[in-house]
Each structure stands twice: as C-alpha cells, then as structure tokens.
Amino acid sequence: MVRDLPSTEGPPALQTVLDALGDPECRAILSEATEPMTATELAETCDISQSTVYRKLDLLTEASLVDERTGVGSEGGRISQYERDMTDVSVSIDETGEFSIELDRPSRHADERLAEMWSEMGDEL
C-alpha cells in the first residue's frame, strides 16, 4: 500500500475545511476512518450510500482531512483506501482580523516515509 502524497500547494482553504467539518456525513467518515478503509467499507460502516461517500471523500481530501492510499488488491486490481489524516484542527484569528487554520498530523513511521519517497519517485518516471 502506498500513501499518496499530500498537495504541495500549502494548507487547505479555511472555508473548505469548515465546510467538511460542518457536514454530518463527513464527520461520520472522519470518526470511522481511524484505519485505512475502502469507500465500500465506509459506506457500510457509516450507513451512507456509496456515491455519497465518494462525494464526501472528495471534500475531505480537498480539505486535507483524509489521506488516500492506493495499492493493488488481492485480485490484482487497483484499490483505494482512506484514513483520517489529522489529529487536531485549530482555527485562529490574528490582530488584523485574518483567519487561519492549522492541521496537526499523525506522526509518520519510517516505513511510511520510505513508501512516500518511492511513490514520489514513481510519479516522476
């Protein structure tokens, strides 16, 4: 299983994160996705239609709140699994009235960092 690299565009937009966190179905997915799960597993666990799960996963991915991992399934096909990719969300406002958002990420083990490097090298080929 290879962890897809997060976007290098910087932190997600504040409104995107707030929209995702304000959605009850997105919150249900975040609550359940403590380990890598397929969209089908999330649909069953959260009692949400699979098409809705895919829409919510798109929103959660755009908000950088879940991580998509792609790999090869037992029958040789490509599979995607999703896992919550934050431990804390902080929203703050500075003295000029500008809002900002900060996401705390879980620490990565050495094998995950190595998988990220290999994935990045493969994307460049």
Tell me about this structure.
By secondary structure, the chain is an alpha+beta fold. It has one domain: Winged helix-like DNA-binding domain superfamily/Winged helix DNA-binding domain (Arc Repressor Mutant, subunit A, Orthogonal Bundle), CATH 1.10.10. The protein has helices at 14-21, 24-32, 39-46, 50-62, 110-124, and strands at 2-3, 66-72, 78-84, 88-93, 99-104. A three-stranded antiparallel β-sheet has the order 1-2-3. Helix 1 (14-21) packs antiparallel against helix 4 and helix 3 (39-46) packs across helix 4. The longest helix is centred in the C-terminal third of the chain and has 15 residues, at 110-124. The radius of gyration is 16 Å and the shape is globular. Residues 1-8 have low confidence and may be disordered.
The number of strands is: 5
Judged by helices, strands and strand pairing, the structural class is alpha+beta
Main sheet, how many strands, which sense, barrel? Answer: 3 strands, antiparallel
What's the multimeric state?
single chain
What is the number of independent domains? 1
The average pLDDT is: 84
